[in-house]
């Protein structure tokens, strides 16, 4: 049958190729199945093997979009993200009913899978492993993998190799079989960032999943997020893709379905001798998608739920609701001045500059654009000499960086005002992740940048020479409902 087809590939040239994430030296051959990866040059020119007609998935539809002219499909790497439509996150499936997609109903979509599937999806931002016997269901029992279904045999935090695993609790197979017999589809939703960092080979993960599911003895559908885009938990991408594209025509019963994971934000000592959870991503994922949540201890060991957990300090839902009732403060003045904005990346400085100050005639000076603080000083000075006001749109977190513009104002005889963004670092991190997900041109801001700002930050005071210090709240605004929907989600793991 089609699902069992293989293609034998042999490396002929002197330059090294790669298959399944491993080097393929000259003269060697490898047998590839539907969904396997092939690199004509190791690390470059990546393709995915596709057979025509394609194997059948759990939904009865093709495993991935086909190239009608070839059995190979070019798969964009994690950095090759297409521009989003409107505010939809990069690679995210449409949630509305006005667009056709791979979730369209077709004959036979209710049938179960007849053979194992291993598929690259959504420009390699998502992988799917499906065992034989998986079929659509209105009841989904979804689980995290590491720390929930399995743990390491070695006792290490991270597996030392693909065979370093064991079922976490003896009762796990029995419980999953019980759920499966009750009509639940068993689904694993797992973050595997090691794949995009080249610390974990996709084929090693496939080998591991084959052995885990064989040990469990139940049909399992597994979605894997290899990167840090829309499909990484706690973002809801994997769940949205599952229910729209990989569950046939069955509507999911959200009251019956549930999600179980170990990253629950529990504090140290939530149980005797227990360390705090490494993150809150699983609990936040359940909140984002609207599922009942259990920890492995609750579901498999029958332990009572604990209230000794902590959600992130920043609640995006409260921020949006608060912005609706807040009274905006005008940042612009009529008199000529230099404005120095202060705040971490993502605090709203550029939004204030572009929506309030520049329309009022201010000239913006931004180090990201100009590349040096010296050029920012030059732009501000030129603006004042031309009879305009200047807005310095940089982080300006320490006295030294702000002093340059205070001294410039004194020399030119104009007041220097400080606009201090009240945005917390947690809020700013959320804003930056939101921009990454909705704007493919936005550059990633690392935790190191935030930590550097925090360590060097000095609260502005009028003693520095400012004529006034105005505090501005970050009030999110949106161009459409999809933007707001995304912003209201927990986008970070803790």
| Sheet of most strands | 7 strands, mixed
What spatial order of strands do you see in the largest sheet? Answer: 8-9-14-13-10-15-16
CATH topology of the largest domain: Rossmann fold
CATH class of the largest domain: Alpha Beta
Describe this structure in words.
The chain has 494 residues and is an alpha/beta fold. It has two domains: 83-90 and 107-301, HAD superfamily/HAD-like (Rossmann fold), CATH 3.40.50; 321-487, Rossmann fold, CATH 3.40.50.300. 26% of the residues lie in helices and 18% in strands. It is built from 13 helices and 21 strands. It has helices at 172-181, 202-216, 237-245, 281-289, 296-301, 316-325, 349-357, 367-370, 373-385, 399-412, 425-438, 447-456, 481-487; strands spanning 6-10, 17-19, 22-24, 29-33, 37-41, 44-49, 72-74, 117-121, 126-130, 139-143, 150-151, 166-167, 184-191, 220-225, 258-260, 292-294, 338-342, 363-365, 390-392, 416-421, 468-472. The strands form five sheets. A seven-stranded mixed sheet has the order 8-9-14-13-10-15-16, sandwiched between helices. A hairpin with a 4-residue loop joins strand 8 and strand 9. Helix 9 (373-385) runs parallel beside helix 10 (399-412). The radius of gyration is 26 Å and the shape is elongated. The two termini are 46 Å apart. 40% of the residues are buried. The model is unreliable at 57-87 and 93-108 (pLDDT under 50). This is Bifunctional polynucleotide phosphatase/kinase. Residues 58-70 have a biased composition (Low complexity). GO terms for molecular function: ATP-dependent polydeoxyribonucleotide 5'-hydroxyl-kinase activity; double-stranded DNA binding; polynucleotide 3'-phosphatase activity. Keywords: Kinase, Transferase. Residues 52-112 are annotated as: Disordered.
